[in-house]
Amino acid sequence: MGESFGRWTLGDDEALLAVVTSANVACGFHAGDPLTLRRTCAEAVRRGVRIGAQVGYRDLAGFGRRFMEVPADELAADVLYQLGALDGIARAAGGRVAYLKPHGALYNAIVTHQAQARAVVEAVLAFQDGHGVALPVLGLPGSSFLELAAQAGLPVVPEGFADRAYRPDGTLAPRSEPGAVLTDPRAVAAQAVRLAGSGTVGSICVHGDSPDAAVLATAVRAGLAGGGFTVRAFA
């Protein structure tokens, strides 16, 4: 959420915040401007929704969906900068950043890219040292990122995607492939129920920039309730 920029509007954050328990909020590097982030955080706090920092590459033009070979120390500083900025905005609204989730190409890169995974972990640890709180991190099950984060003592939450297709190895199908993004509410809800029942994930994501994202999120929540699952924030 929070991915609008200036006069360019993306997604229906208000509708989504009425459905979700946690909001992955952009931090200004891949999307989002300060006023958008402030409004999104304020509405999340008003509705009792947890705020997560969705950190990414410095790539507004590519929406953070292009891999970038960023030096590890620079990436760590970029992630720490994003965390601090969003946490400051969230605290001004009466909340705080409750967890971190990498965005887009960075999310996919640190499934296997050890150096970048370590850099993100380093940033979270630096933020944690400055605030005295253990910050949970979201990532793909089996990823290098979650493995390194767990080794560093960070709380880790394996994540599943209700609206994305998977490859046989458990990684996400690239968006360039046909059928990589799921748009049928029934299929999205069914996938969410399967993921929840697998016991391998602790959070289920619906992308705010997907067509009819609020409709998909509502279908997911109804499907999970119908499947006997209790929906709550993990952080």
Structure, briefly:
By secondary structure, the protein is of the alpha/beta class. The protein is built from eight helices and six strands.
Describe this structure as you would to a colleague:
The chain is of the alpha/beta class and 235 residues long. The chain has one domain (13-226): Alpha-Beta Barrel (TIM Barrel). It is built from 8 helices and 6 strands; from the N terminus they run αβαβαβααβαβαβα. It has helices at residues 13-17, 34-47, 72-92, 104-109, 114-131, 144-151, 185-198, 213-226; strands spanning 22-26, 50-55, 97-102, 137-139, 156-161, 203-205. Helix 7 (185-198) links the parallel strand 5 (156-161) and strand 6 (203-205). Helix 2 (34-47) packs across helix 3 (72-92), helix 3 (72-92) runs parallel beside helix 5 (114-131) and helix 5 (114-131) crosses helix 6 (144-151). The mean pLDDT is 96.
